[in-house]
Write a structure and sequence with these properties.
Layout: H1 2-9, H2 13-53, H3 60-67, H4 71-75, H5 81-103, H6 113-130, H7 132-138, H8 145-169, H9 175-197, H10 201-223
Helix pairs in contact: 2-3, 2-5, 2-7, 5-6, 5-8, 6-7, 6-9, 6-10, 8-9, 9-10
Length: 230
């Protein structure tokens, strides 16, 4: 078998060199892919631990145990708990920005108020129920400073995008009224989200519908003659 292998490699030194170069290039890529999978595994475990115990009580040992790896393996990728939380927060905030970039845009005048509100709430609730750690990290009492700063920036941008949506839903409202209404809508959503995350199944769905009802009824008097606003 070894002789056959040498014969297979011998016809052209140049071809053999290219195979060797390709192999050398593939190895770092494979190592990188394995590293990314390990990081994803650790972040998934951290999300579970942060949701269960909160950020303060969480430990790298608990995260490693949840991930099924040794603490030494964890430290190959993250120096401490804060670094894990920051990486997790960064990834979640990137995904959140993509979500509101798709949802919070001006809507067609023919779109009913109920439909516009329902679509936005559904998308945001889907994100938050799929990633409950986002709420745990962003609204915890002692999250790392970098996460808090990034969340403040996210909040400011999010308010701006809600204003864009509301401007198309409430064309007769002044800019100051739109800004105030955007803050109220986000506050109502956050309060409702806490109730939604505390329930499961049909009861969770019922709370999601209640959030939609509250927001729709709040906006109805401001929407005037928009379809579905009466």
């Amino acid at each position: 078998m070894r002789a056959t292998a040498r014969v297979c490699q011998s016809p052209s030194k140049g071809w053999g060199s290219r195979v060797s170069d390709t192999s050398e290039q593939e190895q770092p890529r494979r190592r990188q892919a394995r590293g990314e999978r390990r990081i994803a595994q650790l972040l998934t475990a951290a999300a579970q631990v942060f949701c269960t115990t909160g950020y303060t009580a969480a430990s790298t040992n608990a995260i490693a145990r949840e991930a099924g790896v040794s603490p030494g393996t964890l430290y190959q990728f993250f120096p401490n708990k804060e670094a894990i939380a920051v990486e997790l927060g960064d990834r979640l905030m990137h995904e959140m920005r993509e979500t509101y970039g798709e949802v919070l845009t001006p809507v067609d005048p023919a779109t009913s108020l109920e439909e516009a509100v329902g679509s936005a709430v559904d998308r945001f609730m889907a994100f938050n129920t799929e990633h409950p750690v986002f709420f745990a990290l962003m609204h915890g009492p002692d999250v790392p400073g970098r996460i808090a700063d990034a969340h403040d920036q996210l909040h400011t941008t999010l308010i701006g995008r809600i204003e864009d949506l509301l401007a198309s839903l409430l064309p007769r409202s002044s800019p100051a009224d739109i800004t105030r209404t955007a803050h109220v809508c986000l506050g109502v959503y956050k309060a409702g989200l806490e109730l939604v995350l505390a329930h499961e199944g049909a009861e969770r769905a019922a709370y999601v519908q209640e959030v939609k009802n509250v927001l729709t009824r709040y906006l109805q008097p401001l929407a005037g003659d928009r379809p579905g606003a009466a």
